[in-house]
Write a structure and sequence with these properties.
The complex is a heterodimer of chains A (about 300) and B (about 230). Chain A is of the alpha+beta class. Chain A has helices spanning about 5-20, 20-55, 70-85, 95-105, 135-145, 155-200, 200-210, 215-255, 255-265, 270-295; strands at about 60-65, 85-95, 125-130, 150-155. Chain A has a four-stranded antiparallel β-sheet. Chain B has two domains: about 1-80 and about 155-235, P-loop containing nucleotide triphosphate hydrolases (Rossmann fold, 3-Layer(aba) Sandwich); about 90-155, no CATH class. Chain B is globular. Chain B contains eight helices and ten strands. Chain B is an alpha/beta fold and about 230 residues long. Classes of the chains: A alpha+beta (about 300), B alpha/beta (about 230).
């Protein structure tokens, strides 16, 4: 095919989007709605996941050290905890610091603790750390139970398990929802495109009779598919951007202090804008072109 | 130009539509194919265009043996034929110019050639002033002339017309056939399918009559047209 012919066919495809504007509008509308539904589901799932992670991160494990532990043992365990990739924010608090912190929590009653410094200090030294993957909390605690300097381990294993369960549920729910929406969308889109192509079957038929090759007939439809997909992707992206920002602003302006802290874990739109636009463009264009190519196939058998 | 040898054809339901057809149309001929509805004329037309393949026998058109023709060779073969339909089959979204130019565009013709050839053919059909119009802005007769221009623009050796007068006013029917005869005089072979016996009687010439899937008559008939001044019946 000559470059001039190809240019003509691309122009023809772009013109057809406008000439068949009613059907183009229907295709863009359906595709935009489907992308919006899938996009919002993905965003909601990702954000809930982030929030659950945030709540999970607030729970730390406290390892209380026996009073008779030697400094060497303490340093050794501290080093091994620091080097453990599953843990983060590992902090060592010695007995004196622990007493100070306790006094701070007592406020005016801290006076009762006066004179307990030195050997009479009842507060144990401790390590505090957070677990990167909450689902591993129980296993890590189990490993640490055998440590000889362990007095007591305070770990929110129940919270960790609950959080892990919630995350798993959200992930499964999110994936199922996206799959269901994707399948429903594909069926609707396939039907819309089929209707578009069907309304122009005579045109395709005429082209075949005057000796047009299948590729010559396909290219304009292909271009139409790409354009419709791209327009729908941009529309869906802009709508999600607007909707997400509005919702985010409303929630931050009308939330309690605790909720505001939770909302700080919401993924900012700027962080997901490009990947989202890429996904929308990719899926929009692929659905548009594949849909057109498949729908046109039956009409080419003349 | 067109050669049918012992051709039989049936659709999927098994009913024989054409039985043992032997037909030869030489280059430069003008032939009418007549017959009532369901006689098999349209199937004959579809066989020539290689829309369907014969059950038995061979069909050779413009030197192409259609039974052995590969799928990818079909577009090239169809470009060697100009086709005119009863319902015009113009692309509604294209202007008259683009409808005619489309036949050239599929052959990868240069833009310069298209710019020269299309107005030339439209001029022959008396349609130059309608080049920018869309098919729905034209009368039936004008639409059929656009279809004729589209069939002619490639300068094909063969034009087949399926009931080209079926959707136009009776007086315009004679005009359309007259145009086809003029094209024929320039050396293009024309095969025109029709059920309008008046037209055949008027113009005369080779007439092939199809009945119940068989050719029952194939001979030259004298027309009134040759002996009289052109008086189009109204």
């Amino acid at each position: 095919m000559k470059a001039s012919s190809f240019k003509y066919l691309v122009k023809e495809g772009a013109t057809n989007v406008w000439l068949n504007r009613l059907m183009s509008l229907a295709s863009v509308g359906v595709l935009t709605t489907c992308l919006l539904l899938i996009g919002f589901s993905l965003l909601i799932t990702a954000n809930i996941n982030n929030m659950v992670d945030y709540i999970g991160d607030q729970n730390e494990v406290v390892f209380f050290i026996k009073d008779d532990a030697t400094q060497e043992q303490i340093d050794e365990t501290f080093a091994s905890l620091k080097n453990d990739e599953r843990l983060f924010n590992v902090v060592y608090t010695d007995k004196a610091q622990a007493l100070e912190e306790y006094k701070e929590t007592m406020g005016e009653s801290a006076i009762l603790l006066d004179g307990l410094e030195g050997e009479d200090n009842p507060c144990p030294a401790s390590y505090r750390f957070k677990v990167a993957d909450l689902s591993q909390t129980s296993a890590i605690v189990k490993e640490l139970e055998s440590n000889p300097i362990k007095e007591l381990i305070n770990a929110p294993t129940d919270v960790a398990d609950t959080m892990t369960n919630i995350k798993d549920m959200i992930n499964v729910f999110g994936i199922v929802l996206v799959i269901v929406l994707a399948v429903v969308s594909l069926v609707i889109i396939a039907n819309t495109i089929r209707a578009t192509v069907f309304s122009r079957r005579r045109e395709i038929n005429i082209m075949k009779y005057v000796g047009a090759t299948n590729n010559f007939i396909r290219v304009p439809f292909f271009v139409e598919g790409i354009l419709i997909g791209a327009i729908a992707a941009i529309l869906a992206f802009l709508l999600i951007w607007g909707g997400y920002s509005l919702l985010f602003n409303y929630m931050t302006n009308h939330a309690s202090v605790w909720l505001k802290q939770l909302l700080s874990s919401i993924i900012p739109f700027s962080q997901i804008a490009w990947p989202l636009l890429g996904c929308f463009m990719g899926s929009g264009v692929i659905v548009g072109t594949v849909g057109c190519t498949f729908s046109i196939r039956n009409h080419l058998k003349v | 130009m067109i050669n049918f040898k012992d051709v039989s054809f049936a659709y999927g339901n098994g009913n024989m539509v054409l039985k043992n057809i032997n037909l030869n149309v030489d280059a430069g001929e003008f032939a009418f194919v007549v017959g009532s509805s369901g006689a098999g004329k349209s199937s004959l037309f579809k066989l020539i265009l290689r829309e369907v393949l014969p059950l038995e026998g061979s069909v050779v058109v413009n030197g192409y043996d259609l039974k052995t023709l590969k799928k990818r060779e079909v577009p090239g073969f169809r470009r060697s034929i100009g086709v005119v339909f009863q319902d015009f089959r113009l692309i509604p979204s294209m202007t008259v110019f683009d409808n005619v130019a489309f036949s050239l565009r599929v052959t990868d013709a240069s833009r310069r050639f298209i710019r020269n050839q299309v107005p030339y053919v439209l001029d022959l059909m008396g349609l130059v002033h309608k080049a920018k119009s869309y098919p729905n802005e034209l009368s039936g007769g004008e639409q059929q002339r656009v279809a004729l221009a589209r069939a002619l623009v490639n300068d094909p050796p063969l034009i087949i017309a399926d009931e080209p007068t079926g959707n136009v006013d009776p007086e315009l029917s004679y005009e359309i056939v007259e145009l086809l005869r003029e094209i024929n005089k320039c050396g293009t072979t024309i095969l025109m399918v029709t059920h309008e016996h008046d037209l055949v009687r008027y113009f005369g010439g080779r007439t092939i009559t199809v009945e119940n899937g068989s050719i029952v008559f194939d001979d030259y008939v004298g027309g009134n047209h040759e002996s009289q001044q052109l008086q189009i019946p109204r």
